[in-house]
């Protein structure tokens, strides 16, 4: 998902609902959000990004935010928003690599758990 406009509250809420619905509908394992065109973030928008990551995690998907402008990062820190569960990368390419590595790691852990379960039942 690439956000190319500054988000106002209603649009941000719609984005949150649409993304979570899409993760559920497609069983997506990852969400990549490009905010390179976003120049202003307030506490509400920061909370929406955190909510998306938390909801996606509950649905077994990782979230990576890319393209954050320095002013946005400074604002988020000054607002005291930790953005728990949100992974970040500088750009789309690095974000996709990070997302792929997290998904691969999760699948390897699941395979190891499956193997351990198989050994226990044998």
Describe the protein's architecture and organization.
With 122 residues, this protein is mainly alpha-helical. The chain is built from 4 helices and 3 strands; from the N terminus they run H-E-H-E-H-E-H. The protein has a 3-stranded parallel beta sheet, sandwiched between helices. Helix 1 runs parallel beside helix 2. The termini are far apart. The mean pLDDT is 86. This is STAS domain-containing protein. InterPro entries: Bact_StressResp_Reg, STAS_dom, STAS_dom_sf.
Helix content: 55-70%
Mean pLDDT: 86
Uncertain spans, ≥5 residues at pLDDT below 50?
none
> Tally the helices: what do you get?
4
Q: What characteristic shape results from the CA principal axes?
A: elongated
Task: Specify the structural class.
Answer: mainly alpha
Compressed to H and E, one letter per element, the order equals: HEHEHEH
Describe the main β-sheet briefly.
Answer: 3 strands, parallel
**What gap, in angstroms, lies between the N and C termini?**
45 Å
The percentage of residues in β strands lies in 5-15%
What's the count of strands?
A: 3
Strand order of the largest sheet: 1-2-3
Instruction: Give me the Rg, rounded.
Output: 16 Å
Domain STAS: 1-99
Protein name: STAS domain-containing protein
InterPro entries: Bact_StressResp_Reg, STAS_dom, STAS_dom_sf
Region (Disordered): 103-122
